[in-house]
Amino acid sequence: MPAPDRPAIRVLLADDQALLRSAFRVLVNSEPDMTVVGEAADGAEALELARSQAPDVVLMDIRMPGTDGLAATRAICSDPALADVRVVMLTTFEVDEYVVQSLRAGASGFLGKGAEPEELLSAIRIARAGEALLSPAATKGLIARFLAQPGEPERPAGRAVRLDALTGREREVLVQVAGGLSNDEIGERLEVSPLTVKTHVNRAMAKLGARDRAQLVVIAYESGLVRPRTD
């Protein structure tokens, strides 16, 4: 439970299925540290509500009529006025090809629609904190596979250049982040404190222009610092 003086996490729901939005609303509003501030039935409405309600986290369905979730995510994450808004994509494993596009567009991560309620609530808190939202476990493999596919959008050359701004330790930490490890796990592996790891992560994010840890993972693959596994 959050500290009593910490404001509730403001959540915007975007899904074209009213019944699903209703279920999400009941779940989110049942938590003492969360509140639903709006509901959207398509991407255009989600963007409009994001601008008017300034949510902390948007739960965004990828497939919606009209403006889909991918386009809405790109618009939200490219708007400087919405820099603090985090987007969690909701998808099914049948549309995995959209996952990396979502992360490239600026989403903080994604969940399958079949996730357990506690997973969804945890995802909201993780995204709000700017931590890695790379679950379920298959996500890291999906990111690696789709980033490695030919024909993907052109990879930003500037990111590879900006890696030169990282210290050796920051690069080392970035590799571990791309492996999906937590600060505690990285600290144990590198024999430093989790606070030191967090400092390195934050500095790497600032130097690379990453919104959160999920974006660091994408940059690590796009730049070639980490190579996708083929096994």
Automatic annotation (TrEMBL):
<keyword id="KW-0597">Phosphoprotein</keyword>
<dbReference type="InterPro" id="IPR039420">
    <property type="entry name" value="WalR-like"/>
</dbReference>
<dbReference type="Pfam" id="PF00196">
    <property type="entry name" value="GerE"/>
</dbReference>
<dbReference type="InterPro" id="IPR001789">
    <property type="entry name" value="Sig_transdc_resp-reg_receiver"/>
</dbReference>
<dbReference type="InterPro" id="IPR011006">
    <property type="entry name" value="CheY-like_superfamily"/>
</dbReference>
<keyword id="KW-0805">Transcription regulation</keyword>
<dbReference type="InterPro" id="IPR000792">
    <property type="entry name" value="Tscrpt_reg_LuxR_C"/>
</dbReference>
<keyword id="KW-0238">DNA-binding</keyword>
<protein>
    <submittedName>
        <fullName>Response regulator</fullName>
    </submittedName>
</protein>
<feature type="domain" description="Response regulatory">
    <location>
        <begin position="10"/>
        <end position="128"/>
    </location>
</feature>
<keyword id="KW-0804">Transcription</keyword>
<dbReference type="InterPro" id="IPR016032">
    <property type="entry name" value="Sig_transdc_resp-reg_C-effctor"/>
</dbReference>
<dbReference type="InterPro" id="IPR058245">
    <property type="entry name" value="NreC/VraR/RcsB-like_REC"/>
</dbReference>
<feature type="domain" description="HTH luxR-type">
    <location>
        <begin position="159"/>
        <end position="224"/>
    </location>
</feature>
<dbReference type="Pfam" id="PF00072">
    <property type="entry name" value="Response_reg"/>
</dbReference>
<feature type="modified residue" description="4-aspartylphosphate">
    <location>
        <position position="61"/>
    </location>
</feature>
